[in-house]
Write a structure and sequence with these properties.
about 290 residues; alpha/beta; 8-stranded parallel sheet; two-stranded antiparallel sheet; 11 helices; globular
């Protein structure tokens, strides 16, 4: 496995096995330089979102890199204020315009049950997601997106979507790391050919100081983040590490010259719930 290796999505689309996350990378020079460093380091999979507010900077870095568009995989996400058919299509156009791209490789519904939808009725998210997903399917059919998926969806959100979808989600991006392995959700995704993408693979930094992880870092002569990223890869996940420091960006990609043993993976599995857990998507206030 290498940085240019890929997973294959349900529709045959190839997606690089490691992505570069841009959450909390401030618009302007910070996000621009981070993405530029990532592309220089060999990353070809860039993950952003409308709500991150940095799509224009991400797009500028992509353009200035000179890398052919067909060699890149770019993901963005629909924010919570656009969960209708028309507004979803409009939001996609806005994201494409900011990124300076003709198409996205992957477009995701960012959250399944936004507060504004929830306020209109306890079960309103079901019809809102159905309408939004219809827009995604039409954008996919039109070639404006190469693959479609969701983020932060739990099993009941995915099950509800099955009643109206014509195309199943190809990706489910979730908070996944040794502290929150979401075993049942991961198994459900895998059983339905939905790729498990792992955001916050380092557990938002909460796993960095744990002795169980640091001992493995010494054993493999790797950094703690490299151990945690490798855990995601060995689990079959697609991790999305994020950094705005050039040396860390480079180091986070240097995870393909080793694999964890079954015993060491099991040791990291024992860290379940020692750090943060995922947010309940049905209880969000945004």
């Amino acid at each position: 496995m290498s940085l240019t290796d890929t997973y294959t999505l349900a529709n045959g689309t190839k997606i690089p096995v490691l992505g570069f996350g841009t959450w909390q990378s401030a618009d302007g020079d910070v996000a621009y330089q981070a993405v530029k460093w990532a592309l220089d380091a060999g990353y070809r999979h860039i993950d952003t979102a409308a709500v991150y507010g940095n799509e224009a900077s991400v797009g500028r870095a992509i353009k200035d890199s000179g890398i052919p568009r067909e060699s890149l995989f770019v993901t963005s996400k629909l924010w919570n204020d656009a969960h209708t058919y028309e507004s979803a299509l409009k939001a996609l156009d806005v994201s494409l315009n900011k990124l300076g791209l003709d198409y996205l490789d992957l477009y995701l519904i960012h959250w399944p049950n936004p507060a504004s939808i929830k306020a209109t009725g306890e079960e309103a998210w079901q019809s809102a997601n159905a309408e939004t997903w219809r827009a995604f399917e039409d954008a996919y059919t039109a070639g404006k997106v190469k693959a479609i998926g969701v983020s932060n969806f739990q099993i009941h959100h995915l099950e509800a979507l099955t009643h109206t979808q014509n195309i199943a989600p190809m990706v489910n991006q979730n908070f996944l790391n040794p502290s929150d392995q979401q075993v049942e959700l991961v198994a459900y995704n895998a059983a339905h050919n939905i790729l498990n993408e792992a955001y916050s693979p380092l557990g938002t930094g909460k796993l960095i100081d744990l002795p169980q992880v640091s001992s493995l870092a010494k054993k493999y002569n790797k950094s703690i983040p490299q151990i945690l990223i490798r855990w995601s890869l060995d689990k079959g996940f697609l991790p999305l590490p994020k950094s705005t420091h050039e040396s860390y960006i480079q180091a986070n990609a240097d995870v393909f010259d080793f694999s964890l043993t079954i015993e060491d993976i099991a040791a990291l599995d024992e860290l379940q719930a020692v750090g943060e857990l995922h947010i309940n998507a049905d209880q969000i206030s945004f």
